[in-house]
Write a structure and sequence with these properties.
Length: 373
């Protein structure tokens, strides 16, 4: 135990001194989720809009604090009108609609103001959001939506029953048909599952460096392919349990809890690798407890991101599809890592190589931890 505390003193003292010198940063609008449906004689787009981007002084200042849900409930009618006007301006600055190469302007509606008293979406991060509906009339030609360059949102996610989930980056576009052929409904669930699984896979490879680091540490700890696959399945199962608990409302996270979870995820990577640096042999039941605990923790962080951007009556099936994609990505990492470790196993310096890899994982997690402050 003395060695353990000496190790963490050496690691955490310089880290905390560095963190104290860093400024606090506001949230970043990395992606916006838009749900699409063909309703009657119009295209309908639904989204939850981050109010921080409807306030110029916050939108243009990376260090400004985002408004909270309670703040939004307290505003005047004049302030609400100003927020709506700014929200329209921002949306039309990065979403462009056209039919047959002719620009069309959407009708923009704010349904939160249709009822009294006012109610606004409550998201896990505690920030202020408003619901926005964009509608455009059907025509003989498909509707094209372009995500313009230099957009506020890094990614725009579209969900529709007939194609599932698609992610667009600035400079890309997507077509929405004038009508949806009846036969497409029969294949919609398969298509939707494929695209949502792809989103889950991309969440790990290449977007989830922290996720990759944990799986690498887990493979080093497993000591073999069969056990590593079992750990991976257990880790994903715990993810799914976290999803379910948040989806059912049994766990609710405020902004502070969400931030602590982000730090805890990186801390779990450091803890798993540090444990194997200090102890030559870790008992199997200890590893199982760690993987279950850390799997739940990682799942809460993943669910926070997922459920803030996906609001749909098919959320449970969507989560299962994304979970399948996550597990496929994990198994890819497991197979590649265990293959490399099998070759390393033939080297006499196997223990020192494993220790070096754990040290690299710890340092990488520390860098990510500092960057997230």
């Amino acid at each position: 135990m003395g060695t353990f505390f000496k190790f963490f003193r050496l690691i955490w003292i310089p880290v905390w001194l560095t963190l104290l010198s860093l400024p606090a940063h506001a949230h970043e609008w990395e992606q916006i989720f838009i749900q699409y449906e063909l309703k009657g004689d119009e295209h309908l787009f639904k989204m939850e809009f981050d109010v921080g981007y409807a306030i110029p002084e916050i939108r243009d200042d990376p260090d400004a604090s985002p408004p909270k849900h309670a703040w939004l409930l307290d505003q005047s009618d004049a302030r609400y009108q100003a927020l709506q006007g700014e929200a329209k301006t921002v949306l039309l600055s990065f979403l462009h609609f056209s039919t047959d190469a002719h620009a069309v302007q959407p009708q923009i509606h704010f349904p939160d103001w249709d009822t009294q008293p006012l109610t606004f979406p409550k998201n896990l991060n505690g920030f202020a959001y408003i619901t926005i509906h964009l509608s455009l009339p059907l025509s003989q030609n498909p509707l094209q939506c372009d995500v313009l360059e230099h957009a506020y949102a890094t990614n725009v996610l579209f969900e529709a029953e007939h194609f599932g989930l698609r992610t667009l980056q600035p400079g890309e576009d997507i077509l929405f048909p004038a009508t949806i052929a009846p036969e497409t409904h029969s294949t919609a669930p398969v298509s939707s599952f494929f695209y949502n699984s792809k989103a889950g896979f991309l969440h790990v490879i290449p977007q989830g460096l922290d996720h990759v680091l944990f799986i690498l540490a887990m493979c080093l700890a497993a000591g073999g392919l069969k056990r590593a696959i079992g750990f991976s399945l257990l880790f994903t199962s715990c993810h799914m349990l976290s999803f379910a608990l948040i989806y059912l409302g049994l766990i609710q996270l405020n902004a502070t809890a969400s931030q602590i979870i982000e730090w805890g995820i990186l801390g779990s990577i450091i803890a798993l690798s540090a444990l194997h640096l200090i102890k030559k042999q870790v008992l199997r039941h200890t590893l199982l407890i760690l993987i279950i605990s850390f799997g739940m923790l990682h799942g809460l962080g993943f669910a926070r991101v997922l459920l803030e951007n996906v609001q749909s009556q098919h959320t449970l099936s969507l989560i299962c599809a994304i979970g399948a994609g996550v597990e496929l990505a994990q198994l890819t990492i497991v197979l590649l890592t265990c293959s490399a470790l099998f070759l390393v196993g033939k080297v006499s310096q196997q223990r020192s190589i494993h220790s070096s890899l754990h040290l690299v994982i710890i340092l990488s997690a520390l860098i990510l931890l500092i960057a997230r402050f």
